[in-house]
Amino acid sequence: MTELVFKGKEFVWNHHLAVPFRPLVMQPDKGVGEARLDGNLIVQGDNLHALKALLPLYAGKVDCIFIDPPYNTGNEGWAYNDNLNAPMIKEWLDANPIGIEDGLRHDKWCAMMWPRLRLLFDLLSEDGIIFICIDDNELYNLRLMLDEISGDPSNWIGTIVWKNVTDNNPTRIAVEHEYIICVSKKKESVEKIWKSQFSDVKDLLVRVGEEFAQDFPDPYAMQSAYTQWFREHKSELWPLDRYKYIDRDGIYTGSQSVHNPGREGYRYDVIHPRTGEPCKQPLMGYRFPEETMRDLLAQDKILFGDSHDKIIELKVYAKEFLDKLPSVIELDGRTAAYELRDLFPDRRKAFDTPKPTQLVEKVLSYATRRYSIVLDSFAGSGTTAHAVMNLNAKDEGQRRFILVEGEGYADELTRERVARVQVGVPGATAEPLKSGLGGSFTYCTLGDPVELDHILTGEDLPSFDALAGVLFHMATSQPLDPARMDEARAYVGEAGGTHVWLIYRPDLDWLKSPEAALTLSFARKVADARPDARHLVFAPARNVSQRLLDAEGVPVEFVPLPFALYRVERS
């Protein structure tokens, strides 16, 4: 595997591990609906810190990531602001913001992306996928980074070319496209075929079919009228520009999917209804047995030619069409600006470089299911959340979005856009802008870092919830389910047969008292409830030795605070 080398790589290789955990602090007055951490989220804060903050709750649970990071064109003004203390790297990171004349701007971009990508992969589920928008400036660096971080170049899924503009400027090559690259966490776990039930052309043909069926009771008149309409609109109907027939059940076409592909199939006669002769058979025979063919004939799902010399076809209705995700998408990028203008009629220009919701929605319609969790850690104007809500409205899904935005507009633009999409745009008269799509979200900021060594001094003691989430993730590499946590019993949660307990209060005097120590009676109590399980008990001290616990046959292990800055998971 080819290795990407960039200046500073040795310093950022494991930088994501040194980023402190910071709790998510809910701001109920800035969200819509009940404030909760297991619903839709918008997190304001540096995305590196925010991704680390999401780990205790969402490690291995995110199904799809869609991000639009800086393209590093040299004109964007983004700044490398990660807190790296190594003097050698600080020397060349001081030249911010990064400009087109900066000879190290590509190195800095790679150094910025590396730890973020490491954390994004930690958040992905085993069958999770990540889409990244990019252009030629960093496409090849990004490809090598993803190969290395994913651990296997075969996890690469593909590249989508988005043709988004027409360039009329005189130049060598008119650049009229960007890319959306796709990589998986574990390719063998990803569905082999992606199909989408959503298609604008499909919706059009379904609607037209219903209208013609209502207006023309006579089937011949209906077909004649539809044939005329089809000829006039055929150029607008791709990829359904072969759907030239209509009956009472809708618009349809003939498919050669009766053919058996690649090897010898079934052989039998299908009699032509007019000539009474057997129809010509496909070269390799039929793909399904004669019994299935009889059922299809009974359901009027087989199309015959004018004579038996033509191979039969399968009747396929437009309403049954499932679209495929193409490698080239042609969509005018200016539609994003028009969309924001509708959402923010009170602003002359809401955002400089928005992505069209239609683009993100199209991609997510293939790569997500109705209950998927979708993350965007470069949220910008909030397009990804808008796309998720549109998809949910179409298929009654319950997809959840998590947005992260560190810029100052996170509140007044990102949050505001999501709120307007959900509850409606002030002054709008057309739907769905008027009433909104419904839904809720919780707005969060990042709290102070959870510094375990501060337990020694008593300064900035974290809450039980914040500390429990961090320790549970460290111990199990799994996200915490807050619903199972019971602070009164000191219970945190369970993963893989291991139960985690935390004897802790954010009170220095209490932490110094005998109550804060693991005792034999406490160990027996937790073990008696689940004697066959493994129990980890985090506590500042203990009044019982591990040797005694082992001798008593109590399956409890003591993990001292604050010296638990390591994974205690056993192999």
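Second entry:
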Amino acid sequence: MRARDESGTTGHAMVDFSQPYSSHRSPILGGNVVATSQPLAAQAGLGMLAKGGNAVDAAIAAAMTLTVVEPTGCGVGSDAFAILWDGKELHGLNASGRAPSAWTPDRFAGHDAMPAAGWDSVTVPGAVSGWIALWKRFGSLPLETIAAPAIRYARDGFAVSPIIARLWQMGGDRLGTQPGFAEAFLPGGHAPRAGERFRNPALAATLEAIVATEGESFYRGALAEKLAAHAKAHGGALTLDDLGAHKADWVGTLSQTFAEGVVHEIPPNGQGIVTLITLGILEHLGIGADPVDDVETLHLAIEATKLALADAGRHVADSAHMVFDPAALLDPGYLAERATLVDRGSAGLPSYGAPKPGGTVYLAAADASGMMVSFIQSNFMGFGSGIVVPGTGISLQNRGAGFTLEKRHVNQVAPGKRPFHTIIPGFAMDADGKPLSAFGVMGGPMQAQGHTQMMLRRLVYRQNPQAAADAPRWRVIGGRKVAVESSFPAALVEALAARGHEVVVEPPDSVFAFGGAQIIERLHEGYVAGSDPRKDGQAVAF
């Protein structure tokens, strides 16, 4: 008889997986590095480098493996984005999906907001197209070699790690009644417990079909037919034509000079521009005059973030539908004007400006040749829509929830339109135009704020990547409300409150709300990496 106590201890050995003490990791150094949110995925990526593959091979192997070992954050039905330094230039890839052609505003009449679960939250899944686009342009190993670890873990199983087991249970409680979910993810009627082995042979077969057809089956073949048939059977709008029309786009990057570097993000429909607006405002405010963990620094960063979030909430959407060119939000004159709205002594209630017309997973990989990849893929909210197509293991994102139903808003739902996206890969170059770091922070609206905090610590205060990942984080909630981790210094909390910030100290079990970070940074020889202990993240190297 299996025993299980309140803390999640399970199994005959009665291993207690809780972490009662704070831990301190050291940065990882090596000539070839992979950093992900799950150790098995990190090892899968490093295995490709050991076979003579490059950073793109490693990134795809890790991404595929993450759909198996961390389904609480991503799946084959996710969306994805990437920023890649190929050794000579920087590339940006947008592999997010578009709304089905039947998604007119009238379809959602009577709703207060876009659905967050079920087929009416599912846009065309883009992650598979992202894997294939990266592999065709930059990959060096056979696709079947790259996919082998993911297929093996899906077919033979893997031991579920403690944090993922907890997120799995939360997802099951919320989405267990969605079509196909229980069959795929609740074996025996419950979520796998920490240490239990989970197998997904249907997903193994799906990954094999994706490899054999170089992704065609997913968008224009047998897998696409299963997706469309399941949607139709459950009142969804996704069709074969919607799937067949999808493609990933090479979009370049937007950038912002900051401190002694240049930070790059994917252009909208993502929120990466929030980081760039924030950093631009901070540059005008002269950030860096005070210590990194001083209230003066923290207050300015929070106030600049509020202004950036207000602009994004009003202006950012699928770039084809934006009123302003995204670059207008980064115009130096506009950012200087926004900076004047920051009161250095008290918390404000910012509004958006008007420039002149003019449970996610993240990974980074870098190889000895100099190639670096910043890659992110996500279901959006944990397991996403909760929809799993029977017999395929394909779990689908709920990115449709990123649209708004507000009339005439730039992000209002419309056929064939990409929704506002939270997932963003980050990349930084040095002042000489050489690659510096590939980085990312997971966690919905926390991501752009996390990018800001990481770059502030790295580019201005020169903290090492692991220290930047470990540092207590904050998160703007709205208005004057700011959430901070329980490990945040009490004196800083008091100092912020004295300036009018409404500070919410979240309990230790809220660490997921502050994201998990991974970062790989180039040294003169090799790389140094940091991996966030808030998740099961790990950096590996040789």
